[in-house]
TrEMBL record:
The keyword Transit peptide does not apply. It comes from Faecalicatena contorta. This is Putative MFS transporter, AGZA family, xanthine/uracil permease. One of its GO terms (molecular function) is purine nucleobase transmembrane transporter activity. Belongs to the nucleobase:cation symporter-2 (NCS2) (TC 2.A.40) family. Azg-like subfamily.
Length: 476
């Protein structure tokens, strides 16, 4: 038995290069588990968002079917994308339906433009096929190489702030304010007997979790982020933040609805039926480009930022196994549409597992298996509240923001684009916007300063495409 176990360990070690990357099996497993727990909220939130247009339109039955179908589709789509990262690309990245892109799918394409759920899936599928083609011919790699160092060095700290604001929002520590846009939660609410204290308690749990993670990390305890998430979940029970009551394993209905409305239900004929065919083709093309631009630069930004954080940059400054990682991303976008979910992309929460020491495909292999297992153990996944995973995002934000020291602030033609890259990510809630504004301002600064030789042709072309996108394409 011991020999058999040893043999398996040796095979996995050799296949993923665990020892070669100065990691251990235990570290990789913990990292994979951490990534999954940090991103698990998507399994709950994505079905809600994609079903919401039908709920708003008053079709509660269809909304329920779509929510059930999308749950299964989200688990399968995330599994396919992440297992590709593990076995094909051998990188510690997870893939899942992207937040923001799913909102665009639901509220702009379905609710705003009147397309059905099945027709919107066609648009996502076409953007995935487009990605596969441009990745196969090396265009996506060329685009990454065209990103100037001023923007590249700013991507990691920018993502750090971006996931920090996601964590602050999910925890309830930061709330909306009509006068100042955002403000901190009111911790004096306990004095008002008529106010629901759950949001305040959630913010308190998140703060406690953040301190736990910080102390454990300072003491060099392995698994500090994962321990912090588990501890926060437990602390949240007596505070009314963690709920243990929902243990209904109604998997049969979910699979039935998945087969009925989600699996291979792309409505090609309905998309191009009726009306002016040329107008339809133009609109669909614009939507495909919109999905593609946001997805491409979200994934490129995440890939560059996380790769730098994990040391997966070669001597030429390029991401190791970049083409394989990009192809995994492209395939998962197309297959995600086939199983009924919005755009599957490389998720920024992968950084949580990388911060735990994940360095190889073994990390994503563990995460992928957990995505598949989540189909059965969904209620257990749902027990972990956002207040427990939020401090993990904030804590990883600290680690990633430390890379701001690499940004060149001595030359304003580099400093301004870097600054725009960093601040537009959190303040517009989009990695793609940060990269886009960084590239646009880089070209403008260099051209206006007559440093033409520093602007690559492809960089300029991409910047112009983004300008056109902002002028003509509404992203909701």
């Amino acid at each position: 038995m011991n020999k058999e176990s040893e043999s398996k360990t040796t095979f996995l070690d050799n296949y993923f290069g665990i020892t070669e990357n100065k990691s251990t099996m235990r570290t990789e497993i913990l990292a994979g588990l951490t990534t999954f727990i940090t991103i698990a909220y998507i399994l709950i939130l994505n079905p809600q968002i994609l079903a919401d247009p039908y709920m708003i339109m008053g079709d509660a039955v269809m909304a329920g079917k779509i929510a059930n179908g999308v749950f299964i589709g989200t688990c399968i789509g995330a599994f396919i994308g992440t297992i590709l990262c593990a076995i094909y690309a051998k990188v510690p990245f997870a893939q899942a339906p992207g937040m923001g892109l799913n909102a665009f799918f639901a509220y702009t394409v379905v609710l705003g433009m009147g397309y059905t759920y099945g027709q919107a899936l066609v648009i996502v599928f076409l953007s995935g096929v487009f990605f596969i083609v441009i990745t196969a011919v090396g265009l996506r790699e060329a685009i990454i190489r065209s990103i100037p160092d001023a923007v590249k060095t700013a991507i990691t700290p920018g993502i750090g702030l971006f996931i920090t604001i996601i964590g602050l929002k999910n925890s309830g520590l930061v709330v909306g304010n009509s006068a100042t846009l955002v403000s901190m939660v009111d911790f004096a609410q306990w004095r008002n007997p008529d106010v629901d204290l759950t949001p305040m308690m959630g913010a308190l749990v998140a703060l406690i979790g953040l301190i736990i993670m910080g102390v454990l990390h300072a003491k060099k305890v392995k698994g500090s982020i994962l321990i912090g998430i588990v501890a926060s979940t437990i602390i949240g029970i007596p505070l009314g933040v963690t709920h243990l009551s929902n243990f209904s394993l109604d998997i049969g209905t979910k699979f039935s609805d998945f087969a009925e409305v989600s699996f291979m239900k792309m409505d090609f004929s309905g998309l191009f039926q009726g009306g002016n065919v040329m107008n339809t083709i133009f609109t669909v093309t614009m939507l495909v480009i919109s999905f593609s631009l946001v997805n491409m630069f979200d994934s490129i930004g995440t890939l560059l930022g996380a790769a730098k954080q994990s040391g997966m940059i070669d001597e030429n400054g390029e991401v190791i196994r970049m083409k394989q990682a990009l192809m995994s991303d492209a395939i998962s976008t197309a297959t995600g549409a086939m199983v009924g979910t919005s755009t599957v992309t490389t998720v920024v929460e992968s950084s949580a597992g990388i911060a735990e020491g994940g360095r190889t495909g073994m990390t994503s292999f563990v995460t992928a298996l957990l995505f598949l297992g989540a189909i059965i153990f969904a209620p257990i996944v749902g027990i972990v509240p956002g207040a427990a995973t939020a401090p993990a995002l904030i804590f990883v934000g600290i680690l990633m923001l430390s890379n701001v020291k690499d940004v060149d602030f001595s030359d304003m033609t580099n400093a301004l684009p870097a600054f725009c890259t960093i601040v537009f990510m959190p303040f517009t809630y989009s990695i793609a916007n940060g990269v886009a504004l960084g590239l646009i301002t880089f070209c403008l600064m260099k051209i206006c300063s007559k440093k033409f030789e520093e602007v690559k042709v492809l960089t300029l072309v991409i910047s112009i495409v983004f300008v056109i996108r902002y002028i003509f394409m509404t992203l909701g």
